[in-house]
Amino acid sequence: MKKIKKMAIWVALTLPTLLVPTGCEDMFEPAIENNKTENDLYNMPLWATGLLGHAYISNPLGAWSFNDVATDNAVSNDAGNGYRQMATGSWSASNNPMDQWQYLRASWQYINLFLQIAEGVHWADDELVAAMFKDRMTGDALGMRALYMYHLLLNHAGYTADGQLLGIPILTEPENLYSDYNLPRNTFQECLEQLNKDVEAAIGLLPEEYRDISSDAQVPDKYRSNGVNAGQYTRVFGTNASNRMSARIARAVRAQAALLAASPAYSDASGVTWETAANRMAEVLGQLGANPVGELDPEGNHWYANGSVVMNLGGGMNPKEIIWRSDETNSSDLESTHYPPSLYGSGRLNPTQNLVDAFPMANGYPIADAASGYDSKAPYTNRDPRLDLYIIRNGSTAGPQNSPINTSLDNATNNDGLGKAETSTRTGYYMKKLLVQSVNANPDVTTQQPHYKAFIRYTEIFLGYAEAANEAWGPTGTGSHGYSAYDVIKAIRARAGIGKDNGDAYLESIKDNKEKMRELIRNERRLELCFEGFRFWDLRRWKAPLNETATGMSISAGAYTPLPNVEQRDYQDYMYYGPIPYSEITKFSNLVQNAGW
Questions:
Q1: Are 31 and 43 in contact (CB under 8 A)?
Q2: Is the distance from CB of 391 to CB of 429 less than 8 angstroms?
Q3: How far apart are CA 517 and CA 249, in angstroms?
Q4: Which residues, listed in sequence order, are joined to residue 454 by a DSSP beta bridge?
C-alpha cells in the first residue's frame, strides 16, 4: 500500500468545532500542525470519513446552475452571466462555465485516498458494526465516484480529430508525488465500463434506502446470518444516513449514463443500445412496485412549491417524487434572485417565447396544430396548466399576496414591464418554477421558507425510460417491463391536466408513430424538467440544433407582438462536445483535446 504523506483534511461536515483553551505558551511556541498521517486515519474514523466528505462538498448536483440560459429555454437579464456569454459566442477551452475537469478530478483523488484506507480503518469496537460501516463507506465512495464519472463525461467527453470518442484518464488509486500525471484519456466506452463496475460494487454494499428498523427479521440476510441485530443495523444504515449515496441512487446514476451513451451524439462508439438504456431506467422504476406508472407521484410536477411540506419531511426523508435531494435550508435566495422587481426580486432568468410556445393547449394539441384552438390574440387561454405553474406571464399572480404581474411594455406602475430596468424581463416572462410563493423577499420584512434541491427525480427517470423504450421498441412496445413509452407519457400528461375532456386525442393520434412520439417525449422532457439544468445536455446528446434564436413577447395596449430576436445563439458544430481545459492540454502532452477546441 502506498504511504500517504502528511495531509490536511477538511472535515467541517463531519466533526464539530473543537474549542481549545489557550495559554501564554502559545504566544512563544508554534502550534502543533493539524496534519494526519495514514496511521492516524486508521484509528480516527471521523477523520477518515472527512476524505469522503469532499465527495459531497464537490457534488456536481449540489447547486443550481440555471444553464437553461445557454439554450432556447431562457435568457438572463444579467449581462455578466457566464451562460449568457457562452451562448453568445465567448465559449472556449480557457473560458468554460461548464468546466468540471479540475474540480471533480481533484475531489476524485480524495475518494481514491479514502478507498485505499477504508479496509483498515477501525470503524467501531463492535466487529459486526465495524464490518457494516466498512461496507457502507466503501459503497458510498464507489457510488460517488460513478457520479463524478457521469458528470465528467457530460462535460468533457468528445471526439478527437482522429475520430476517437474519449472520456477522461481513469484513476482507481490515489496519486502521489511519484505518480505519472501525464496520462492519456481513456475511451468513452472504457469510462462507462468503470462507471458500471463502481455502481455494481456500490449496489452490493449499500441499502436501497436508509431506514430505522425495529425487528431483527428486517435485517438483510447477508448481515442477519452473521448475527447482526436490528439495533446494530440501524446504527449503520438508519435514517441518520438519509440522502447519502444508496443502491437506488447508484442505479439512477447508471441509468443516466446509459441514456447519455445510447443517444445520437455517443451511440456510435459507446457500445450502449437504447434497449440497454430502457432496461437501466426500468431497474430504478422497479423500486416503485410492479406497476411503476401507477405510482407516478400526483404532486411530482410541483414538488418544490409547498414550504410546509418540505419543513415537515423530517429525518432526511424524501417525498414520493424524489430519489435524491439536498438537505433543507430556510432561505429566500431563489426568490430574491428570480422574483419580478415588484416582488423585490432581480428577475434574473427570463423564459423565452420558444419555451412558452412548447406548452400545448389544455386539449393536448401543440399550438401549431389546426385542431388546437390556439388564438394568437389570447395566447394564454386554455393552455397546458404547467405554463402558469412554471412561468410568470402578463396577468399572472405571484408572491405571498398573489400580486398581479404586468409584463407589458406600457406598464407605468413598476419595473415588471418588458425592458424597464436592468432587473426587468427581456422576454416578457419571469421564472416561477422552483420558487416558493409564500416567501416575502422585501428586505425590510423578509420571510423565508424551507427549500431543497432535487438531485434526481422519478419524473426524470420515467421520461428517460419513455425516450429509450420508444427508440428500442416503439411507442407501445414494453420489452420485458409491462409498460410502454406511451403509458408513461399518458400518465405524465394526465397528471399535468392535459386532455381531460378529450382523452388526450393528440397522444392517441400519434401512439403508433415512433417519430411523432419521439418529438412529443422530447417536448414533455423540456416542459417537465425546465430550469432544472437538463435542456443544454439534452440538445447536445440528441445532436439537436443549438442555435435557435431566443424570442419573446411584447404587449402594448392589449396587443401581442412577437419579439423575434431577443438573443442570438452562436454555437459551432464541434460544441456538441465540451473542451478539455486549455491549461491542462498545455501542461500534459498525452492529453488530446476534443476536435475543434
A1: no
A2: yes
A3: 28
A4: 325
Q: Is the dihedral of CA 449, 455, 458, 461 positive or negative?
A: positive
Checking if the pLDDT of 334 tops 50, the result is yes
Q: What DSSP assignment string belongs to 321-377?
A: TEEEEPPPEEE-HHHHHHS-GGGT----EEE-HHHHHHS-BTTS--TTSTTS---TT
Q: Give the DSSP H or E segment for 392.
A: strand 391-392
Q: Which domains does the chain have, with CATH numbers?
A: 24-72+91-293+579-587 (1.25.40.390), 459-549 (no CATH)
Cα angle 479, 482, 483; round to 5: 90
- How many residues are there in the chain? 597
Query: How many CA atoms are closer than 13 Å to the CA of 416, on its beta-carbon side?
Result: 25
**Are 335 and 343 a contacting pair, CB within 8 Å?**
yes
Is the pLDDT assigned to residue 309 strictly greater than 60?
yes
Whether the predicted pLDDT of 94 surpasses 60: yes
pLDDT of residue 306: 79
Grid cell for residue 400: 405571498
Which amino acid is located at 296 in the chain?
L
Residue 36: its pLDDT value, please?
58
Other residues' Cβ atoms within 10 Å of the Cβ of residue 558: 9
Residue 494 burial (CB < 10 Å; 0-12/13-18/19+)?
Answer: middle
Q: For the whole model, what pTM was predicted?
A: 0.93
Distance CA 302, CA 333 (A): 19
Residue with cell 465495524: 130
pLDDT at 18 over 50: no
Taking all residues of the chain, what is their mean pLDDT, rounded to a whole number?
92
Q: SS3 letters for 149-208?
A: HHHHHHHHCEECCCCCEECCCCCCCCCCCCCCCCCCCCEHHHHHHHHHHHHHHHHHHCCC
Q: What is the average pLDDT across 149-168?
A: 98
Asked if residues 73 and 550 have their Cβ atoms less than 8 Å apart, the reply is no
Give Cβ neighbours of residue 355 (< 8 Å, ≥ 6 apart).
72, 73, 74, 391, 526, 530
How far separated are the first and last CA of the chain, in Å rounded? 39
**pLDDT value at 534 more than 60:** yes
DSSP letter at 209? Answer: S
Greatest pairwise CA separation for the chain in angstroms? 85
Q: Say which DSSP state 523 is in.
A: H
* pLDDT, average across residues 76-94: 98
Residues 6 or more apart whose Cβ sits within 8 Å of residue 205: 135, 136, 138, 139, 142
Q: pLDDT tens, 234-285?
A: 999 999 999 999 999 999 999 999 999 999 999 999 999 999 999 999 999 9
**88/302 Cα distance (integer angstroms):** 32
DSSP 267: H
CA distance 259 to 469: 11
Query: Burial of 414 by CB count in 10 Å (0-12 exposed, 13-18 middle, 19+ buried)?
Result: middle
